[in-house]
Fold:
Amino acid sequence: MDVAGKRVLVAEDNRVMSDVIRFNLQRTGAVVTVASTGSKALEMLRSEDFDALLSDYQMPGLNGEELCRKVRHCGRNEQIPIVMISAKGYEIDKPRLQEELGLTRFLHKPFSARQMVDVVQEALSSART
Structure:
């Protein structure tokens, strides 16, 4: 699927990681907005429409799981495809989170730019319209 013009929100507290994600998605033509905290991401999701959300699992304050739980009940973007990004890999109960939060995919750090773009394209193509 072509991601050109698709609005992607990235919730990532690590500046270097968010810059890498933004740069590579923008190269595909996506319109990328970065929120450095889960709380900022939730504010944006409540006031704007996005085509996909990439959320880090471990963030200070409102973490990725809490953010996704709130997103699924906020109305405006409750059907948005969500890709959870995590360095915790085996420590997370992925099947439970995917079922409870309706996550589209998990992406484990470290990942390649190509892998991340492919996962976002897959998430966008599986979106319910």
Notes: The mean pLDDT is 91.
